[in-house]
Design goal:
Elements (H helix, E strand, L loop, with lengths): L1 H22 L3 H22 L26 H19 L12 H20 L20 H17 L10 H5 L8
Helix pairs in contact: 1-2, 2-3, 2-4, 3-4, 4-5
Length: 185
């Protein structure tokens, strides 16, 4: 289900990102599209390893043609060309408070960026010698080490915790499950 659904979502997000200026879409909506494209690629790469970045019209481009072939990119390609750039841009452009109830926020993007750094660091480190598909050297194209990625994960998560926007913890666990308290921070 993920494989079939995610690529449709990715293509839609790419269409929003590419055509937003021509139709007057706000920067906040473009940032949400970037977040969701990165989110879908992140789910795919965690599940399947390397996945296609070219859906038929070029890497990370909106595709309008039916294509029945693809080439799977490597794990480092997916992280460095799709996930990290989109999440970093989303962190910069998303608002601290959601545009709509349940909408993407700066805090959400930071937390997924931290998670992406963690999983990529683990992939680079490969402590259990797990094979990857397609086969790729466990080396970042920009020369970043797994220690760097672990540190980035820590730094980004710390920033999200320090500045959570309108979100926060409830005083007690009871308050989380209290029925009249369904709408809380």
């Amino acid at each position: 289900v993920l494989w079939g659904t995610a690529f449709s979502n990715i293509n839609t997000a790419s269409g929003v990102i590419e055509n937003a200026a021509a139709v007057g879409i706000s920067d906040a909506l473009i940032a949400e599209a970037r977040f969701f494209r990165a989110f879908d690629y992140f789910m795919l790469v965690q599940t399947f390893g390397g996945v296609p970045l070219d859906l038929g019209a070029g890497e990370l481009k909106f595709n309008t043609n039916a294509v029945r072939t693809s080439v799977r990119n490597t794990v480092p390609d997916v992280y460095t060309k799709a996930i990290f750039p989109d999440l970093l841009q989303a962190v910069n452009d998303l608002p601290a408070s959601p545009r709509v109830t349940g909408g993407a926020t700066k805090t959400l993007a930071r937390l997924y960026l931290a998670k992406a750094y963690l999983t990529y660091a683990w992939w680079l480190q490969n402590p259990n010698n797990i094979p990857t598909y397609p086969a790729a050297d466990r080396v970042d194209p920009d020369g970043k080490t797994y220690q760097y990625c672990f540190q980035q994960a820590y730094d980004v998560a710390t920033a999200a915790i320090s500045d959570p926007g309108p979100f926060g913890l409830q005083p007690t666990f009871y308050d989380v499950n209290l029925a009249p308290n369904d709408r809380n921070s």
